Amino acid sequence: MTPTGDSPDDRAYVPRHSVEGPPGAPVLVLGPSLGTTMDLWRPQLPELTRSWRVLRYDLPGHGGSPVPDGPVTVAGLADGVAALLDRLGVAAAAYAGVSLGGAVGTMLALRAPGRVASLVLVCTSPRFGEPGAWRERAALVRRDGVAPVARTAADRWFTPSFTGAEPYVEMLRGTDPEGYAGCCDALAGFDVTARLPEVSAPTLVIAGAQDGPTPPAGHADRLAEGIPDAGLVVVEGAAHLAGAERPGPVTEAITAHLDRTWKGLGR
């Protein structure tokens, strides 16, 4: 991936990011899902920025982050978040992530446990199915662009009754094909099922009851069972992008968890 040059570790990919909320408040990092941007978290911002210094970032080739110039791995993305925290002078932070963003948070908690003070895993998994399916999707996007996956995104991400899908699908349409494909490759190589007992951060798992890509059974439940003392909240009437479809219950679950676990100084 493209090095940033001004990162403490020039080998790490440091993504485009945005910081909002009270200066000096404890820091909360928000990670987006494959095909979306940091604006996926916009419904949660008014509440989260009351008490936390919120750091959002874009995945490679998504939003304003540059396209990678080499292989993308979840470990590399986690290292990029760590490098971003270094750049901002943040020793420890809470982390909440959706889908691929949740995988990045899990990996960060494994690779740098002292840096993750609290963890929220939203509609994600310790393993996203068979690697071959992700490699096939990566090949499709490299060949035909993101249009084929954008056409079916609303059905993957939301329940049939949700009427607000278009802004999120537009995020996918604006994603660079190589950035999207690289992140598919990262998901193909991700499996931390056996390492979940090593996660030491206080963890909440949030699932959408109607989530197709990462349903509660076989995904959220494995996270909650594998991570010591993790809690599990299943949100009814929500699919894969639960925080967009049912922002109220998801925001309430996140703030309740963080109120209990993350009130330390951000810097």
UniProtKB/TrEMBL annotation:
Highest taxon listed in the record's lineage: Bacteria
Regions that span the bilayer: none
All residue ranges annotated as the AB hydrolase-1 domain in the record: 26-136
Keyword Hydrolase belongs to the record: yes
InterPro entries: AB_hydrolase_1, AB_hydrolase_fold, AB_hydrolase_sf, PcaD/CatD
Biased composition (Basic and acidic residues): 8-19
Coiled-coil intervals, chain numbering: none
Region (Disordered), start-end ranges: 1-20
Designated name of the protein: 3-oxoadipate enol-lactonase
Protein source organism: Actinomadura algeriensis
